[in-house]
Every structure is written in C-alpha cells, then in structure tokens.
Amino acid sequence: MRKKEELAGLSQLGKKSEYNFTYQKDILESFPNKHPGNDYMVTFECYEFTSICPITGQPDFATVYINYIPDEKMVESKSLKLYLFSFRNQGDFHEDCMNIIMKDLVSLMNPKYLEVIGMFTPRGGIAIYPFANYGRPGTEYEAKAKERLFQSLSEQKGRRVR
Questions:
Q1: What kind of fold does domain 18-160 have according to CATH?
Q2: Which residues on adjacent β-strands are paired with residue 31?
Q3: Residue-wise DSSP of the chain
Q4: One of 26, 39, 60, 92 is an active-site residue; which one?
Q5: Which residue of 74, 103, 104, 124 is surrounded by the most CB atoms within 10 Å?
Q6: Where are the domains of the chain?
Q7: Is 51 left (phi over 0), alpha (psi -120 to 50) or beta?
Q8: 96: annotated active-site residue
Q9: pLDDT tens column, 5-36
Q10: How many angstroms separate the CA atoms of 122 and 116, rounded?
Q11: CA-CA distance, 138 to 74, in Å (whole number)?
C-alpha cells in the first residue's frame, strides 16, 4: 500500500481523464524517486503521439520514446499521457515537438540523463526521426549525452524498436 505522502501533489492519478487538445505543460506532475542513489533507466513508449503540421495543418503521427535516468524526481505516467495528448492540435514541426518535450521533462524532474525520440510516420515518402537528449552539465551524463547523440540511427533503432 502506498503512503499518502508519496501521492501528495498528484492530481491526475485515479480520476477521470480530461483531455486538452492544445499544448499544456502544467499538466505534468512528478513524484519522489525512492531510489535516487541507483542509476537505472525508465523508458516510456508512447504509440499514439499526434501533432499538427504548422504549414499544412495535416496531422502527424509518431511513436515517441522517452528514456531517462531519474535523480530525485520521476514523471507520473498519467500526467505524461495527458501532456503528450495536449500536442494533438499543436502546430509545431517534428523536431520542435521533441525538443519541447525534452525541455519540459528536464524542467520538471532535473534528471541525470534524458532522451526523447520521435519515430514519425512517413509523409510524402519521407520519415523523420528527431532525437533530442540531455545530460546533466558537469557530470558523466553530459559526456554520455554527447556520445549518444552521435550514435548511428541503426544503433539507436536497434535499442528501442522491437
């Protein structure tokens, strides 16, 4: 059974979902990491990400992968789901969406390491796979982030696609 103080401040968990169709950063919520002394990776695979092309107004669909090494805080998954859904009518390019998500999660949690990958469905015969990552400055994770950024796409895809 969860302690009440662990769930303090979480407003979305356990209540009926209210979906917002425009970008909403403030819906993101965090909770304390019970194992801040351990390095471990948390992965989210979000199959139903949708945004709108800012030029054509056409929908763009993607699977978004979020991998992070938490420190003191972790993102609450229902709030993350509602946050990602809030991009539904957001008019941003693929690269913008992934960078916005990365920056919002870094701001929320201050993780040791975080990466966001968008595997967008091809449109016009071209698929776009933006990759944005962060390693806490002044730590070993900063160097790991740079190293990971320059790995080949085939190496990256092999680690996150079944």
A1: GTP Cyclohydrolase I, domain 2 (3.30.1130)
A2: 74
A3: ---HHHHTT--STTS-----SS--GGG--EEE-S-TTS---EEEEEEEEEEE-TTT--EEEEEEEEEEE-SSEEE-HHHHHHHHHTTTT-B--HHHHHHHHHHHHHHHH--SEEEEEEEEPPBTTB----EEEEE-TTSHHHHHHHHHHTS-HHHHHHHH--
A4: 60
A5: 74
A6: 18-160
A7: beta
A8: no
A9: 666 667 666 666 666 667 889 999 999 999 99
A10: 18
A11: 21
Place of tokens 């071209």: 126
User: The tokens of 161 are what?
Assistant: 């696609």
- What's the one-letter identity of residue 119? M
Instruction: Specify the pLDDT at position 1.
Output: 46
pLDDT in tens, 40-96: 999 999 999 999 999 988 899 999 999 999 999 999 999 999 999 999 988 899 999
Which amino acid would we find at residue 116? V
**Which member of 26, 39, 46, 53 is catalytic?**
53
Q: Does residue 46 have an active-site annotation?
A: no
